[in-house]
Each structure stands twice: as C-alpha cells, then as structure tokens.
Amino acid sequence: MGLLVLTELAHANQDIQKIIAFEGVFERLFSIIEIEGGAEGGIIVADCINLINILIHGNVSNQVRCIYA
Q1: Please, are residues 2 and 47 in contact by the beta-carbon 8 Å criterion?
Q2: Which residues constitute the domain of residue 61?
Q3: pLDDT tens digits for range 5-14
Q4: What is the pTM assigned to this prediction?
C-alpha cells in the first residue's frame, strides 16, 4: 500500500520526487526488489520498478542519486 501512495504522490510532482529520493528510497526499493525475487518477483517488484521509473523520468538529480544507490 505504501508503494502505491508514494507512486501517486510522486506522479508529476518533481518537488515530492526529490523529497522521496532524498530519504533513501532507491536503496529501499532495490532491497525490496531483491527480497521479492528480483526479475522473478510479482506485483510488488512491478510496483517498485514503476515508482523508480516515476522518480527518475525527467528528473536529472534523481537519476544521479539512483545511480549511486
């Protein structure tokens, strides 16, 4: 549920995207993806990847932050 809330908050709002990224969300999302089975994971992995996509699409500072996560 938290992933979906973050996704909705971050959608089309770069200020919220930066706040979320600053709180270390990339590390947490990659950790969740690993725990859930990576590429073999289900809907939770898909939600994590969707949120990562939203956070980095068109947001250069978040792209750099994601690279170093």
Answers
A1: no
A2: 2-67
A3: 999 999 888 8
A4: 0.89
